[in-house]
Every structure is written in structure tokens, then in C-alpha cells.
């Protein structure tokens, strides 16, 4: 396979469609969880990897079966699960049962739990207390928090206590009120500051950094500057990994999606059709038929 910019280009068939190939993660022993060392090894090999959000056992199991090695129980549950307008209202208590469900529904995936707004910003001690709950009560394998140099002390405290930490830079949804909306971050001189933040997170011991809604050129620059993996969402194709909210990816979310979202299915349409046909059958007295009836 041909290498491009130090990476391995995925093979394509004569029609230009992607061909499946064995990934590093698929070679891991059966029953062993993916670890932060594995994602580091994937970066060293120049191998990209996918990450999806998950909030329940059944979908988490599906994503693991599909070959997704890392699952994020994001505070995006605020909008996708709990119906809030933003992620800000989500609490640790809200997310704990979701994280536990995803862990129980999988056997191989590395499960990362989001530290929600207000659960880590006050101090390293607060961050450690929140992270400990996710690891002890829900079985999470790592946590994610937003911010750069301002949360370095928190990252250091967590890592020193044995908690793997994923950072998050660029458009950090918990700070949407400060940003004045969902806008591209890191243009101009702000890009230099973002790079400095990424380097600070790496130095503090973070095992990966999410880059959200930043210019592709900046994301590639950051990726080349770090030894830890970068995970892009709206950050172009130059990152080490890519993440999407699964409801966006599968077409369940209503309305027009953000520019960076590619819809791989129309789950909303499938569910709507199934529910409509069920309702019609009930109204017509056609459900349950004989084959679905006990005697």
C-alpha cells in the first residue's frame, strides 16, 4: 500500500470503492479491551481509527461488532438523550448509568466518559472526584475533558492518579455561551494558541486530543506536532482518528446536519416507517396476527 504524508492509504478496488483490510485493533487477542497503549500504537503505525458516541448497551455492542475500537459516552447525551438545547445541563449522575450500560454492552472497546460542565473546572481535586466516580461506579476506562492550558493541572492530577485523559480543543461545546455560538475555532493567531494548548495537554499526560470544528490545515499541523493521537470532528482528514455523534452519522438527528457530518444511513426514516406500519396494523386489527399469538 502506498504511503501518503507518512500514513497508509486505504486500498480501493477497480471501481474506486474502499476495500476492507485487517486493522491493528482487529489483531488484538479476543476478549481483551483496547487500551490507551493501543491507540498510541495505531498512531505510531500511521493507522487511522474511528470513534463513535454511544449511550446504551445495544448500540454500543453494534458499534463494537462493526469494528469501532473506541466509544465515547459524550455529554452530547444532553441533546441526543435528554432533550436539552446544549450539553451544559448534563451532570455526572446523568451520565453514570449511560457509561455503565455501554461498558456492559461491550467487551473490547475502550470506553471514554465525558466529564460534564461543572464537574472538573473548579480544581484538580474536583476533577479527580468526578473521574473516580466514572471509573469506580460505571467501569469507564478513560475520561475526556475540555480546555487547554487552563485545565493542565486537572489533567496532571488525573494522570498521576492513574486516570487516562483525552483532551478536547477547538469548538468546546461546554463553552458555547462564551463562544457566542457554534463557530469555527483556531483561525489566524488563535491557531497558534490552540497548538500551544495541544502541546500542553500532551506534556500533562493526555493520551489523545479531540479537535472540533477547526480548519483542516491547523488540525493537520497539530497532528504532526504531537506524538499522541488527534481525533477530528469537523477538522478535516489530516487527524489520526475521526469521531461523530452516532445519531448524526446514522441519520437519526432531525434537521440539517453540520457541514462535517456525513450521513451513512436514514435511521430516522426507517424507524418512522416501522412505527407507522405498526400503528396502522393496530388500528386495522391486523396486529397481532396468528403467528404472533399464544394459545
TrEMBL record:
Instruction: Supply the InterPro entries for this chain.
Output: Pantoate_hydroxy_MeTrfase, Pyrv/PenolPyrv_kinase-like_dom, Pyrv_kinase-like_dom_sf
Q: Does the keyword Cytoplasm apply?
A: yes
List, alphabetically, the HAMAP family matched.
PanB
Q: Which family does it belong to?
A: Belongs to the PanB family.
A molecular function annotated in GO for this UniProt entry is: 3-methyl-2-oxobutanoate hydroxymethyltransferase activity
Tell me the PANTHER family matching this sequence: 3-METHYL-2-OXOBUTANOATE HYDROXYMETHYLTRANSFERASE
What is the official name of this protein in its record? 3-methyl-2-oxobutanoate hydroxymethyltransferase
Binding of 3-methyl-2-oxobutanoate, residues: 75-76, 114, 144
Q: Write out the catalytic residues in the record.
A: 212 (proton acceptor)
Q: What is this enzyme's catalytic activity, as reactions?
A: (6R)-5,10-methylene-5,6,7,8-tetrahydrofolate + 3-methyl-2-oxobutanoate + H2O = 2-dehydropantoate + (6S)-5,6,7,8-tetrahydrofolate
Task: Kindly state what the record says about how the cofactor is bound.
Answer: Binds 1 Mg(2+) ion per subunit.
Per its UniProt entry, what is the enzyme's top EC class, as one word?
transferase
Give the protein's function: Catalyzes the reversible reaction in which hydroxymethyl group from 5,10-methylenetetrahydrofolate is transferred onto alpha-ketoisovalerate to form ketopantoate.
Q: Which cofactor does it need?
A: Mg(2+)
Q: Which UniProt keywords apply?
A: Cytoplasm, Magnesium, Metal-binding, Pantothenate biosynthesis, Transferase
Please name the pathway.
Answer: Cofactor biosynthesis; (R)-pantothenate biosynthesis; (R)-pantoate from 3-methyl-2-oxobutanoate: step 1/2
Q: What is its EC number?
A: 2.1.2.11
Give binding positions for Mg(2+). Answer: 75, 114, 146
Gene name linked to the record: panB
- Complexes and interactors: Homodecamer; pentamer of dimers.
Where in the cell is the protein located?
Cytoplasm
Instruction: Please name the source species.
Output: Motilibacter deserti
